[in-house]
Amino acid sequence: MKIAVLVKQVPGSESPLPINSDQKWVDENTIAYIMNESDNYALEEALQIRESKGEGEVVVISLGPVRIQKVIREALAKGADRAIHIQMDSESEIDPLSTASHFVNVMKVEGFDLVFSGLQSDDIGMGQTGVLIGELMGMATASLAIKTEVGDGYIKVKRELEAGWFQWVKLSLPASISIQSGLNTPRYPSLKGIMGAKKKEIKVVEPNKNESKQTLEKIYLPNSDKQTVMIEGSIDQMVEKLIDTFRNNIKIF
User: Fold this and answer.
1) Can you give the CATH number for the domain in which 80 is found?
2) pLDDT tens across 226-235, in order?
3) Is residue 74 in some structural domain?
4) What is the spatial distance between Cα 173 and Cα 73, in angstroms, rounded to a whole number?
């Protein structure tokens, strides 16, 4: 079984995010990057499936600048067999459809049985890439996966729904699955794995030129202020003023 795992490099939760003077992007030179959380779980799920079957290949695919090879090496150290790096400037495109198209252009010649991606990235958080890849490649698709069971020519996925409900779906292979954080316990790289990762293949490819469907106009920190308003009068008057404030100022009605 051949499994692709999409891995993204994102800023760490405690990393500063200084904005460039032109307010078009953040200053990446001062950011501490890590592997996207849900991608880590997607990688572990792929490794466990390969180990349970006793054969197969796990291929890590990442899109981004040269610095992204840090998390690629981490994935290889954890047990992935090889990697594909779609090398491009991180500021050039943020459109999910263009992003998915870059991955599809690489994957369509590989013949993957499964494509695992994290449910969403910790930085942009659009949560669309895995679903778009499934559509573009004509694959069966499922998201919010919290458990998987792989059989002969199919995969069963337990999905997390709203209000404490869950759903089991059975998909024919090939399939694209978006993995929810928490469905397994990701492993740490071993010393042997770290040393072995240096010898594993990282294929660097150039992305095709795609026209982005959206543009980034400005990045800024939200302004916050706090003020106290005293409401006086009779009970009926205070209730009327509260309702008016909720409806017209706070806009919760």
Assistant:
1) 3.40.50.620
2) 778 788 889 9
3) yes
4) 28
